[in-house]
Amino acid sequence: MSTKMKDLPLFYAPALREELQLPEGEAQHAIRVLRAKVGDEFLVTDGCGTLFETRVSGVDRRHCLLSIEREEPWQKYWRGHWAVAVAPTKNIDRLEWTLEKMVEVGLDEVYLIRTQHSERKHTSAERLERIIQSAMKQSHKALLPRLIPDVPFAQLLEMTADYDLRLMAHCRSTVGPERRTIDHFFRPEAKTLLMVGPEGDFSVEEIEEATRRGCQPITLGASRLRTETASLIALQWLHTLDMTSQRRPTTHEK
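The structure corresponding to this sequence follows.
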C-alpha cells in the first residue's frame, strides 16, 4: 500500500514525464507567486489520474525544471463515469462559476449543449478549460474533466448513446412520462449522464425525443431552479447516493 502524498501546492503538467518541467503558465505562477527555488517540492498531475511528487531542479525567468521523486495513481472517490450536459447561461460568469463548482464536487465530463431555448449559442472553450484546470488543482484532484463545447442537443443524444443511464431534468410536469427523483434510477457503477436545460427549459420536442431515445425524466424537487443550481444539485445528489451505497453498517447497527 502506498503512503500518502505530501500536502504540497498542486500544478498541472500533462507532459511532465517527457519534459520534466512545468508548462509556461504554471512555471510563471511557481516562480513569481511561490518564489520557487532549487530544492522546493511540488505536487504535479498529468490530469489523467497520476500524481507526482517532484523537486525543483532548476529555475530561470521562464522555466521551472523538475525531477520526479515519486508517483502514484489517484483514485477518484465516485465509482461510475459521470457527465453533466448543461446549456450555457446567458451570463457567462454564471457558467464559469458552475463549471468551477462541478469540478470541485467531482465529475468526468462536461457537455455544453445548444438547445431550442438556449440564449448563449457559443462559448470560449479556451477560457473554460483554464477554469476547469484551476478547479481541479484547487480541489486537489488528478483527473481533468473532459470539456466538449457547443454540442447541438440532437448530437448529444447520438454521442451518448452508449451511456448506461441518461437522466433529463426538466420542469414540464405535463410532458412525457412521470418525472422521478434520481435515487429511483441510480446505479453506482453506471456510466451516467445528467442533462440540464437552459433558463427556458428543454422544449416539448426535445423532451419527447430524449424520452424516445431511452432518457429518463427526473425532477430535482418542488422549487424551480436556475440552470447552475440544478446542475450542482443533480451532481451532488449522485455523490450522496454513491457515498450512501458504499456505507456498511457497523456492529451496533446490525
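The mean pLDDT is 92.
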